[in-house]
Amino acid sequence: MTISKKPSPASRAPAAVSTAKPIGLAYLVGRLDHILSQRLRESLAPAGLTVPQYTALSVFRAHGSLSNAQLATRTMISPQSANEMVKQMEAKGWIARTPDPAHGRIIQINLTTAGHAVLGQCDPKVAEVERAMFPDLDEAARAQLLAQLRGAVKALSALEA
Question: What pLDDT does 3 receive?
Fold first, then answer.
């Protein structure tokens, strides 16, 4: 007497389903983020910089003095992680902390001359990674892509409110 088993749902699925690659925009953006982070880590490591540190220093350059809470928001990390990162960057002389003249409990963080110098060393490396990411785009197309990405960030950020 032979006992036959009923096939499981997984074994009945067509072969094409199991080998299909996800092709959605969110998937591709996630893959891009992963690969971009890896390439940036590799390019920044010789200068002793991490990707979050480079991001933070760039934010200071663009926005000037910030509090730890503002830095955490703009660099997309937790306030606790931002605090640890600030301590490391201050120890390397890339930033300086000073009391806010308008509010005694807030400490403002500023980019130092050494911070500007390390950014100057790393900016060309980051630009090279960005050019490699979209080698066929001219400046006009890059500007258009940048505007579209900013629009996407703004649109998805508005959903949080």
Answer: 55
Looking at the whole model, is its pTM more than 0.90? no
pLDDT tens by residue, 87-142: 999 999 999 988 877 777 778 888 999 999 999 999 999 999 999 999 999 999 99
Helix, coil or strand: residue 66: strand
**What is the dihedral sign for C-alpha 94, 100, 104, 105?**
negative
**Tokens matching residue 121:** 């060393």
Within the chain, strands assigned E span 95-100, 103-111
Question: What is the sign of the dihedral through the CA atoms of 161, 73, 133 and 42?
Answer: negative
Hey, is 1 helix, strand or coil? coil
Give the whole-angstrom CA distance, residue 125 versus residue 56. Answer: 16
Q: Using CB atoms within 10 A of its CB, is residue 138 exposed (0-12), middle (13-18) or buried (19+)?
A: exposed
State the Cα–Cα distance between residues 57 and 82, nearest whole angstrom: 12
Reported as a single tens digit per residue, the pLDDT across 24-45 is 999 999 999 999 999 999 999 9
